[in-house]
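Hi everyone,

Forwarding the result from last night's run.
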Amino acid sequence: MELIDQIANFFTFSHIMVLVYILNALITFGLVFIDNKPPTATLAWIMLLFMLPVVGLILYLILSQNIARQQIFRMTEEEKFGISTLLGWQKESVKTGISDSDNEVINRWRGMISMNLEYADSLLMDNDSVELIYDGQEMFNRLCEDIVNAKYTIKLCYYIVKDDFVGQRLLDLLTQKAREGVKVRLLMDALGSRSIGRHDLSEFKKAGGKYAFFFKPLIRHMYFRINYRNHRKIAIIDNEIGYIGGFNIAKEYLGYKKKFGYWRDTQMIIRGNSLAALNERFYMDWRFASKEDLNLVEQSIKYAYKPINGKIPVQIVSCGPESEKEEVKRSMMKMITGAMESIYIQTPYLVPDEPMLDSLAMAARSGLDVRIMIPCIPDHPFVYRTTLYNAGRLIKEGAKIYIYENGFLHAKTLTVDEEVCTTGSTNFDIRSFRLNFESNAFIYDSDVTKGMNDQFRKDLEFCREYTQEDRDNIDFKEKALESISRLLTEIL
């Protein structure tokens, strides 16, 4: 005890603060000369480290890790060869044969397809069928029905699975299917699904089901990777039915939480060869989280020959902090810069980086019909204030902003010219583009895109337009809070 007292007496508050500033200076040196963060993020961290040294140091240690250097998704040489061979074949096919296609949408967006092939290693599949669902209860009922009818495999990856009656319903069904001999794998994000514990999963495990938590902490609820979460929402049933979109597994997503009311979201159900990409993505995540020894090439053989389910061209694009390419963001930006008539966006968070904001501003200034729909309910006050600030910037450029007032808008959709559209787990914000693990489906089809636009127009009936007059009536306090929130965008 005497030694502890001596140490405590030696390290006064001044000594501790000197150590904190030294550490912050070393971190600043690393941010400037070693780390590869964007300049805006680097400046934001430096500002926080020296304006709030203790808080900044703690936040940096928790939030700012470089996942890209860890190479968490490693492939064997056989897997690399198999994937590179497939990509090589299609790259050559796109260069030589896509101009001969009778699909006008494909011909027009050939540059984007090529970019996703080269940049995101995303194969184009053109024998898929696509169905869109906009209601949480309908989505969950369909998912449960497909699980009940499953005969061989069930693979689920969700950011949030809660221990409420919705989550329990899912676990009960999965447990029953595991007892029937169906191979069931459930992957959950450790932070998003933190309410689910071993007790909730005990019967599922006894029945033969397998589960894993992505970035599971060594000590429960001690999360030192808050900023890097598996935000994907993917389901693959019997290698025939794929789900991708914004819905998680919890009662609020079905409209049963009073705070949010009706939950407006978008889910895509895909049948066809695009499931190969969803399957590969799931197994990459699963292999990392569960440490199960799986061969991606063997798993992909099951998708080599699929009956034609439709004629819709689809590319599945994934991104995450393990890569610095920001693949989904680049795909969205390619859509926006290639637009000739209209750009419709639905997002719960309008917090993109400056290049994306500039792209939207240029589109609006060019006379394009740029419409963006955001929620009326702030689930994250800092983020919502930044959303309103960015909305105000785009209003000045000629974009139209609509606030959805029939509950909470969680849909993550982008459509361009009624030709190409995308939905998935990616929000229109820096966190999704750069920090979270995300997946989106990009659809090159006029009918699907028109269907998504029709839903956008239906949602307009429950919206009010956010105008310059609204911006002019904001008081000084709220403007100050918006300014502070905007400065912390790159961090929070």
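The chain has 19 helices and 16 strands.

Cheers,
N.
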